[in-house]
Write a structure and sequence with these properties.
globular, Hydantoin permease
């Protein structure tokens, strides 16, 4: 019974704290540029509708499953899965599901911190007026100088990791909860301010049309797959973060309601970001389909030529830092929790050990952008022939570890765990709501996640599954 299990790490003060923490985990750099971009390129409002359906069918059910596993186990993901496997009389190897989540979070944070360091560097540059009046070539040169200098990247990477370690070292309530109570609302305030700036700057209607005008002719099978994949990845599923945050959730808090709220808030951030970014892009005659370069090369041009660009450009990059910071905290927490539980060290030492290890591994990503830029370790495999170490880490985590983790979470929660246990943990009663969740996670969600996995790994084209790889 979960009433007998208590997390040695403490618990959230209430439902709001968990919602803010999980929303902070879900909201990251991808929300700021990727969702608006892929929505505009895949049917605008029509894509948004498909995406929301995918959130309902894939995102929310798996989030509920991951939270219920975390709350029932009340430990780090590795120890939670060990405990729950014993409780279900299942193979003890299920503990490696938790281990894979911890490892995925570690690997993701090692390169995520480097990218977040770029955002920190741009806060300084924007505030100093570096972008004012700069040309496209000038902005590109600034970006090349940053990524081409390993010492400079190391400094910003170090600063960001120290920021993350300080918060996590202070504990669940004194550190993580206090941080997200400030950072997540501040993130929304900054977004609203930037939306107001975009509204006053012109082309706001054009930006809204780009994002929200349904164009069903642009919806393809591949677009649906993109929506399915983003619905899964955007909620931080399969990397141990939501599981460990769920272990701190108070008993009587509704898992279903909080999962729905978190999913909606995550989507709201993405839409607000699009409403802020694309009017600025259009009013300056820039390219909306610039992908990652939109943040660090396209938008600085706009901010450098707009009234108030120094202030609002700085606010934008502060927003990026906040989004990255809340995600980073959740990525390192599973490893810190495991060290406290298994190595009997204080939380401060655990945060330092995990942080230094992550920081050290991040050196591989730093070197991938400069000294090792031509080093392609798997060039003998055609699909990876142009992949740097950073590219391989990104591919391994996003395309393999996370979808497999989500798939196994779904399988364990309804095929391995006793039905009475999930029924008790969700506390919904054996009614339509629980039965819908059970059916989705048992049958529909695993198939959807498997299709996403086959698509992002390129295997979908190979097997020709249902013709879904066709445009």
């Amino acid at each position: 019974m979960t009433e007998k299990r208590k997390s040695i790490h403490g618990s959230w003060s209430g439902r709001l704290a968990f919602i803010l923490a999980a929303t902070g985990s879900a909201v990251g750099l991808g929300n700021i540029w990727k969702f608006p971009y892929i929505a505009g390129e895949n049917g605008g409002g029509a894509f948004v509708l498909v995406y929301l359906l995918c959130i309902a069918v894939i995102g929310i059910p798996i989030m509920m499953a991951e939270v219920l596993l975390g709350r029932r186990g009340r430990q780090s993901p590795i120890n939670t899965m060990r405990t729950l496997a014993q409780e279900a009389g299942a193979n003890p190897l299920w503990r490696w599901l938790g281990g894979a989540g911890v490892l995925a979070g570690f690997l993701i944070l090692s390169y995520y911190s480097v990218i977040a360091g770029w955002a920190l560097a741009y806060v300084y540059r924007s505030a100093a007026g570096t972008f004012t009046g700069a040309t496209a070539e000038g902005i590109a040169s600034i970006f090349r100088q940053l990524t081409g200098d390993p010492e400079r990247l190391l400094a910003w990477h170090t600063l960001f990791m120290v920021m993350t370690m300080i918060v996590v070292a202070r504990g669940v309530r004194s550190g993580i909860e206090k941080a997200v109570r400030f950072l997540v609302p501040a993130l929304f305030v900054l977004l609203i301010m930037l939306d107001g700036y975009a509204l006053a700057g012109g082309a706001f209607d054009q930006g809204l049309r780009f994002l929200f005008t349904p164009d069903f002719s642009k919806i393809t099978a591949n677009g649906v797959l993109i929506a399915m994949g983003h619905a899964f990845f955007t909620l931080s599923l399969g990397m141990g973060a939501i599981m460990v945050y769920g272990s701190y959730l108070p008993e009587r808090t509704s898992i279903a309601k909080t999962s729905i709220i978190i999913s909606l808030l995550d989507t709201l951030v993405a839409m607000l970001a699009g409403m802020a970014i694309f009017p600025i892009v259009f009013v300056n005659g820039l390219e909306p389909g610039a992908g990652p370069g939109l943040i660090f090369q396209t938008l600085p041009i706009a901010f450098g030529h707009m009234p108030g660009g120094v202030l609002f450009g700085t606010l934008f990059f502060v927003l990026l830092v906040f989004a990255a910071w809340t995600s980073a905290i959740s990525l390192i927490e599973p490893a810190v929790a495991w060290l406290v539980e298994n190595r009997r060290v204080s939380r401060v030492y655990a945060a330092v050990y995990a942080g230094v290890a992550t920081w050290g591994f991040g050196l591989l990503t730093i070197l991938s952008f400069n000294i090792w830029a031509e080093f392609k370790p798997l060039s003998f495999i055609s699909i990876f022939k142009d992949y740097t170490v950073f590219d391989l880490l990104d591919y391994l985590t996003a395309n393999i570890m996370l979808p497999l983790g989500g798939l196994l979470i779904a399988v364990f929660s309804v095929w391995i765990m006793k039905r009475d246990d999930s029924l008790q943990e969700l506390d919904m009663g054996d009614g339509p709501g629980y039965r819908l969740w059970y059916a989705l996670v048992r049958y529909v969600t695993p198939v959807a996640v498997l299709i996403v996995f086959l698509n992002v790994t390129g295997l979908l084209d190979f097997v020709g599954l249902f013709g879904l790889a066709e445009e």
